[in-house]
């Protein structure tokens, strides 16, 4: 059988010298694996959270040490609802810093400024007044509309508040109304006289759809499209950043502002909802039919801080859905700023 040996050797040798099959014979080459950056993952999460609402969602977060900002719909205008009260507080503290007002000054509760709920009952008491500090607590911690409008009047009105904000270099945030007139606009009415309660009751009787919106927590699409009393998430972040950085107020006023905001009693399922127990958060919520907002500063375990603003509008799924969007966004930002050391510090991204 030795005569077969040369043939087998030749055949084996031919395997090495024969041309290799073309690449097509093995199918297309595998695509290279793309490593998703931490920033892209975070923005992808924000986009996913937005699908929890059938409305429009805006999210902006910022590392307050590096200035790194990540945003989803960060330049879209949203109704601020009660989140505008952060700007009101800033203007009041600026007056305090200028020596024009004191925290222990007593402000009269003018019956003409009374709306519904909260301390409205106090406005019918002749001579009733509350200190500026107590009014700030009621406004920022309980979101009391009556206390807010006393402060708006003392601040010089909505225009003075907007001027204060723009004077800080913040663009994309405007205050056009006190709370009572903001609610009038949300209801779709523009009364010229009468008490808030009288006007609201008359409007609900004349237009049953107003009551339907209230009961169903449904959005007023026309109101959501108006430019008055709106802010972008990034602009609200800019305002909070100005406070936190000490560019807007004295150290004492800055400290008092955030101390009051740390006692916020509303929105327990929003920014704080999914954060680790005991996380220090100073925030302010805003709620209206189809609108759910929250803005604040969160402290990480290592002492670093980040700011977050989440706005939801035109939502008909209800406050539970809106709260979930805000809580998920805040937790994603918390994990990102704490656990993503390879992120591109200082870079800003918007989608």
Write up what this structure looks like.
The chain has 351 residues and is an alpha+beta fold. The protein is built from 13 helices and ten strands. The radius of gyration is 28 Å and the shape is globular. It starts with a helix and ends with a strand. The relative contact order is 0.18. Mean pLDDT is 90; it is low at 1-18.
Based on the model shown, name its key terms.
two-stranded antiparallel ribbon, 6-stranded mixed β-sheet, 13 helices, globular, 351 residues, Beta-lactamase, alpha+beta, beta-lactamase
The coarse overall form would be: globular
Low-confidence stretches: 1-18
For the record, give the distance between the C-alpha atoms at the N and C termini, rounded to a whole number.
Answer: 77 Å
Mean pLDDT, to the nearest integer, reads 90
Report the β-strand fraction as a percent range: 5-15%
Record field, number of beta strands: 10
Order of helices and strands: HHEEEHEEHHHHHHHEHHEEEHE
Give helix % range: 40-55%
Question: CATH superfamily of one domain, please?
Answer: DD-peptidase/beta-lactamase superfamily
Largest sheet, order of strands side by side? 7-8-9-1-2-10
Measured on Cα atoms, how large is the radius of gyration?
Answer: 28 Å
Main sheet attributes: strand count, strand direction, barrel closure? 6 strands, mixed
Secondary structure class reads alpha+beta
Please count the helical segments.
Answer: 13
The CATH class designation of one domain is: Alpha Beta
